[in-house]
Amino acid sequence: MLAAALFAGGALYVSIVEHPARMEAGPTVALAEFRLSYRRAAPWQGSAAAVCLIAGALASFLTSEWAWALGGLIVGLAIPFTLITIMPTNRQLLDTKTRLPDDVSMSLLSKWGRLHGIRTILGTVGLLIFVSKTLLR
Hints:
Blueprint: H1 2-24, H2 27-63, H3 66-76, H4 78-94, H5 102-135
């Protein structure tokens, strides 16, 4: 549950606070801030999702209760979703060798924000499954 809370809380913060603020700062600042923030956040988010997936599967195995596996799987889905769907956008935004025109960087950042919203939903749903399972014991 802790890993799910860390993932969901971090994702929610980025979705409702950090990303909207960076978008208001203008293209140059938004892109620079994204690059700095992403490099720090990605290991935390990826690790939390992986721990949640493994812990959920282990808890399910030990208790024979499928809800733990389901919660872990939903949070863990953020990993392939990121690698398959978000990574192409990330690569463009993180490429410091290519100068992106302002309209392109803002378009990519907007797209990234929408895609990250899906990660936020996955984390929140997984966390809610864990919380409801704990409270309904």
